[in-house]
Write a sequence for this structure.
């Protein structure tokens, strides 16, 4: 991955995740460094995880397309196949089907899914959307979002950006609460917010 080929949005997103996890670390500065905590950085050549250049062999598993009972098997197969990283989209319309009413249970149990990946010793990259290209209804955007006055999707629109930010922060906070970022000892090494246009 060459630095100059990284899209500015992707960079912003990566930084957002790095910053939000490091500000978390700062807030908890009094405590000792978390067990297994890893520092994720990059330069013009590669990602660097805890000072080591890492080559990521990443495959996609979309958690809501299968059941939690199937996840351990699917993740094991991915590992046996030689992957060291699982990437998944985060499906906004699964997690917030009605505005302000959240669902993280059953096939929507993102935390459980990520913890299973962690148990298998693999990294996670989180593709937060908001729009997802995954043959998924409405591109992953909740239907209620259409009713927001003045909203235009996937463009430089105040309402769209405000709702996107609220959703992304909600997911990031949840990941932080569960110590799932690499800086907290978790498996998430990268996050990506999709370019809108
Ligand atoms: C939560 O989302 C999952 C996956 O879409 C769905 O199977 C389940 O019924 C939902 N739970 C509630 C309480 O809506």
């Amino acid at each position: 991955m060459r630095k100059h080929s990284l899209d500015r949005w992707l960079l912003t997103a990566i930084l957002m995740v790095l910053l939000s996890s490091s500000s978390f670390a700062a807030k908890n500065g009094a405590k000792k460094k978390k067990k297994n905590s890893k520092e994720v950085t990059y330069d013009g050549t590669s990602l660097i995880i805890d000072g080591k250049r890492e080559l990521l062999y990443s495959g996609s598993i979309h958690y809501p397309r299968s059941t939690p009972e199937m996840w351990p098997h699917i993740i094991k197969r991915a590992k046996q196949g030689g992957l060291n990283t699982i990437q998944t989209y985060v499906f906004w319309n699964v997690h917030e089907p009605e505005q302000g009413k959240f669902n993280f249970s059953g096939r929507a149990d993102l935390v459980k899914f990520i913890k299973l990946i962690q148990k298998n010793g693999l990294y996670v990259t989180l593709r937060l959307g908001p729009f997802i290209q995954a043959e998924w209804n409405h591109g992953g955007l909740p239907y209620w979002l259409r009713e927001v006055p003045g909203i235009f999707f996937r463009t430089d629109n105040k309402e769209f950006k405000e709702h996107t930010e609220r959703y992304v922060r909600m997911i990031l906070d949840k990941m932080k609460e569960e110590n799932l970022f690499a800086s907290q000892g978790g498996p998430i090494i990268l996050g990506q917010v999709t370019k809108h246009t």
In short: The beta strands are 40-42, 47-49, 52-54, 58-60, 85-89, 123-129, 188-193. Residues 2-193 form a domain with the TIM Barrel fold (CATH 3.20.20.80). The longest strand covers residues 123-129. The helical segments are 8-27, 71-80, 92-95, 110-119, 158-177.
